[in-house]
Amino acid sequence: MHQMTLAEIARGLADKKFSSEELTKVLLARIAQLDPQLNSFISLTEDLALQQAKAADARRANGESGALLGAPIAHKDLFCTQGIRTSCGSKMLDNFKAPYDATVVAKLAAAGAVTLGKTNMDEFAMGSANESSYYGAVKNPWNLEHVPGGSSGGSAAAVAARLLPAATATDTGGSIRQPAAFTNLTGLKPTYGRVSRWGMIAYASSLDQGGPLARTAEDCAILLQGMAGFDANDSTSIDEPVPDYSASLNSSLQGLRIGVPKEYFSAGLDPRIAELIHNSVKELEKLGAVIKEISLPNMQHAIPAYYVIAPAEASSNLSRFDGVRFGHRCEDPKSLEDLYKRSRGEGFGAEVQRRIMVGAYALSAGYYDAYYLKAQKIRRLVKNDFMAAFNEVDIILGPTTPNPAWKLGAKNSDPVAAYLEDVYTITANLAGLPGLSMPAGFVDGLPVGVQLLAPYFQEGRLLNVAHQYQLNTDWHTRTPTGF
Ligand code: GLN
C-alpha cells in the first residue's frame, strides 16, 4: 500500500479498494517503524490524521470526489499549523504552537488531504544538507551515511522512503529541487507569487516559495493544484487563474525548444552527472524536442549575490524573535538587552547566527551600496539573462546539483563549500522563475537530478515535460533498499 503514488491512491479511494483511514493507519505504522533510522519528522499528528481521514471517507461516501480527498501528506515544519508545534527546525520555536493555519495548510485540508505530521528541516530553512536542524540531521534513505539535501530534507527523505506519497516543501535557493535530486524525487518550485506565503515562516521573503515534493510529475501536479492560487493575505501573491495542471501532462513535446546553457558544464560539475544530463537530453530529443546551446553569462555572479540578499532579508525577518513576543526566552533576564541577547543567542543555532550577522553587516549604513545594492543589480542581470534565453527556447535544462549527496558532516566545517553546491538552483529564485528537478540516474548508488526551468507561470509546461520523460524512463520508480 505504501508504494502507491497520489494518483494511484486517488483511484483506489474512488474505486473503494481501501479507505483513507486504512491507508493512514498503514502509513503511521510504517513511520513508527522506519523513521527512527531517518529522523524525517519533527512532530507526528496521529489524532488529527485519523480525524481527517475519517472525515474524508465520510465526504466520499456522500458522493464527493477529488484527487486530494483522503490523500496522506505532511507539511514542512515552517508552515503554520493551528494548535500544533511549528518549530522551523529551531530551538527558538520549539515551544511555538501556531495560532492559525498557513494558507497552504488550510487549502490542502479543505481539499481533504490528511496531515500525518510536520517534517524536519534546516533551521529557518538555511542549509542544503538538513544538518542545521535543532532536532538533529536527517539521513538519506539511499545511503544512511549521506545527507538528504536541504532545507526540505525531512519531506524528501520521508517521501523517498515511501513513508508517505508526497509532502509540502519550500524553496528559497533550491530547497525543493536539491533534496528532490538527492533522494530521487520530483520537486517543483513554482513561480514567485503562485503559492501563498501567508503562514509560511519567512527566511528571505523575496525568494521564498512553497511547492510540492513527490515521486512523479503527475503527483506534483495534483499537490500543486491544491496549493496554488491568489491569497489576499499575501501582498506578493499573484491574482492569475490557476490552470488545470493535470490536463496538460499529456501534451506532445514535438518541436519543444530546449536550451542547454554552456556555462552549466564547467569544471565544478561531476563528469558522471554531466553524462546523465546528456542522456536525459537525448531522451527528450527522441520525444520530439529540439536542443539548442544557450548562454547565461551572469550565472557566475549568482552565488555571491544570493548569499548577500538572502541573509539580508533573513536578518530583518528574524529580528521578530526577540524573547518578548513568542519563542524561546532566556531564564532570569537581568535587563532588556540581556533578554534580547541571551534569548537570541540560546535560541538560534550557529548557521542562523552567521547569516544574521552577514545580513546585518550587508545592510549597515556604510556597506549598503557596496553589498546589498550591488547584489540587487546582479539579481537584475541574472533575470535579464533568462529573459533573453526564453526569447530563443521554451525550457532550460541542466543538472540540479554539481555533485550527488555528500556524506553527513562532510561540509560542516566549511559553510562556503556548501553554498557553492547551490550554483544551479539559486538563479531561478533570484529571477522568480519556476523550476523542477526530476530523477535522471545514479552515481555510486546515489540519485542524480535533472533541472528544468520555464518562463513565469509555466509550471504546467514543466510538469508536462517531466511527465513525458517519466513515461519513457524508469529512474523515478527506483526504490531505496530497506524501504
Ligand atoms: N541552500 C540555500 C540556503 O541555505 C537554499 C535554502 C533554501 O532554499 N531554503 O540558503
Task: Please outline the helices and strands.
Elements: H1 6-14, H2 20-38, E1 41-44, H3 46-61, E2 72-76, H4 103-110, E3 114-119, H5 153-160, E4 166-170, H6 177-183, E5 186-189, E6 210-214, H7 217-227, E7 257-261, H8 271-286, E8 290-294, H9 302-317, H10 336-347, H11 350-363, H12 369-392, E9 395-399, H13 415-420, H14 426-431, E10 435-443, E11 446-453, H15 459-472
Helix pairs in contact: 2-3, 7-15, 9-11, 9-12
Glutamine binds at residues 125-128, 151, 171-175, 203, 310, 422.
Describe the structure in brief.
The chain is an alpha/beta fold and 483 residues long. The protein contains 15 helices and eleven strands. An eleven-stranded mixed sheet has the order 1-3-2-4-6-5-10-11-9-7-8, sandwiched between helices.
**Count of extended strands:** 11
Structural class: alpha/beta
Q: How many individual helices?
A: 15
Q: Distance between termini?
A: 13 Å
Tell me the series of helices and strands, N- to C-terminal: HHEHEHEHEHEEHEHEHHHHEHHEEH
Give the ligands present: glutamine
Low-confidence stretches: none
Averaged pLDDT: 97
Helical residue percent band: 25-40%
CATH domain topology of the domain at 6-255 and 434-477? Amidase signature (AS) enzymes
Domain Amidase: 22-463
Organism: Pseudomonas frederiksbergensis
Enzyme class: ligase
GO cellular component, one term: glutamyl-tRNA(Gln) amidotransferase complex
Tell me what the structure shows.
With 483 residues, the protein is of the alpha/beta class. The protein has a domain at 6-255 and 434-477: Amidase signature (AS) enzymes. The protein has 15 helices and eleven strands. It has helices at residues 6-14, 20-38, 46-61, 103-110, 153-160, 177-183, 217-227, 271-286, 302-317, 336-347, 350-363, 369-392, 415-420, 426-431, 459-472, and strands spanning 41-44, 72-76, 114-119, 166-170, 186-189, 210-214, 257-261, 290-294, 395-399, 435-443, 446-453. Strands 1-3-2-4-6-5-10-11-9-7-8 form an eleven-stranded mixed sheet, sandwiched between helices. A hairpin with a 2-residue loop joins strand 10 and strand 11 (446-453). Helix 9 (302-317) packs across helix 11 (350-363) and helix 9 packs across helix 12. The chain starts with 5 loop residues before the first helix and ends in an 11-residue tail after the last helix. The model has no long low-confidence stretch (mean pLDDT 97). The structure holds glutamine. Residues 125-128, 151, 171-175, 203, 310, 422 line the site of glutamine (GLN). Belongs to the amidase family. GatA subfamily. It catalyses: L-glutamyl-tRNA(Gln) + L-glutamine + ATP + H2O = L-glutaminyl-tRNA(Gln) + L-glutamate + ADP + phosphate + H(+). Residues 22-463 form the Amidase domain. Heterotrimer of A, B and C subunits.
